[in-house]
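Quick illustration for those who missed Monday's session on complexes.
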Amino acid sequence: MKKVVILGAGFAGLHIFYKIRHLIGKKIELTVVDSRKESLLKPSLPEVAFEGAPIKHSLVELEQTVTSRGATFVNEEVDAIDPDAKQLSFKNGESLEYDYLLITLGAVKNYDAIPGFRDYGYSVCDDTQAQRLWERVKNFEGGKIVTGAALSTWGSRVDAPPLKAPCEGPIGEIMFMLDHYLHHEKGLERAGDFKIDVFTPGEIFFEDVGDVPRNAVGKVMQERSIDLHNNKVLKEIGKDFIAFEDGTSMPCDLAIVIPPYTAPQVLLDSKLGDEKGFIPTDKTMRHLDYPEIFAAGDITALAQPKLGHVAIIQGAIAAATLLNELGEKVEIPPHKLEVFCIMNMGGHDATLILSDVLYGGHTDLAIHSPLAKMMKWGFDSYLYYNKGHMPPDFALDATDKLLKMMS
Ligand SMILES: Cc1cc2nc3c(=O)[nH]c(=O)nc-3n(C[C@H](O)[C@H](O)[C@H](O)COP(=O)(O)OP(=O)(O)OC[C@H]3O[C@@H](n4cnc5c(N)ncnc54)[C@H](O)[C@@H]3O)c2cc1C
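Prediction with flavin-adenine dinucleotide bound:
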């Protein structure tokens, strides 16, 4: 029996878990490790921050999910990985050996890299921040709001688009959902009682998609009096201002930011990462230097942008590569990435975005419709009630084909 360890039970780790679980007790002893007790479904966090939705609908309990399917769950933080000894060490001093390791640790949202964030900044990127933001938003009586993503930087071992902001979709949800809440729920006047400004470190906003989604988003921003500021690299957040590296600043009563994405310390301390600690893999998701290690999701250097959809694509590839390694003959899907997300815009409003122009494709689609909102609700609910298990492949493929026919 081979010892297989999945390190990190987020989108990628859970997807791999469900893809390989049929071999538990037959060919593998499977251990899932996560420092959290519950996996966090981040796409539903904007509903927590701007609609006051209960956090429990964004959490998937891990112990029961994993052990009821015959695997072992270790609720510990990994603080060292020794790829030569094939061993992990935990913060509690214990260790675990593996034959195959799947690294799905996600990226760290590095709030502490932003001076002033802990005192004056807000975010939506985890359960603590999303609930803290809702407390602020529901008591907000008007003023200047500035939102945007900080600059992230990447290593150079693999060829991936070097996005300045690896996940700007949530900025779309922040500006539109907050605008909806303040205008429609609180009755405040746009560009009067409150004003929303958006910044991006990129030359263009939403640099991971083509003109169709970008123009669709721009049109709604114009209708809602939301202004955009390009090439703004976040430097500091103060009590009543937000400052940028080019020496400019804006008055700001509420700053909501996506912090820089960095690799977890355990990888920065190991020899497994690239210059920035992200895992370099080939397109079968195998580590470039260690053939018994695979990776998927935000932690991989190939994942650009850093999206749940990309984590799922890569998780399926990593699982198939491992299954072949274990003697199962399954097809390894191609590493064909695309941007797919549904941006909640408040009320019944949402835009579905599907685009592969970043990777040289021609699909570039934006569907702004209540139908998109229903799809988001259906997808988020499916994930929650099925313990992080994705809808079946045939349903996802059919949706993908239908959308591409519409583009
Ligand atoms: C607000 C927000 C909204 C988003 N909306 C969308 C969306 O609509 N669509 C979309 O496709 N994507 C969306 N994303 C992006 C998506 O959530 C991520 O790309 C996805 O979660 C990445 O999955 P992952 O498995 O790579 O990492 P994660 O989901 O971050 O999982 C990593 C896991 O590793 C664990 N871990 C980390 N370090 C350690 C350690 N040292 N020891 C043990 N365990 C550890 C963590 O606890 C975590 O459970 C959104 C992101 C945010 C922040």
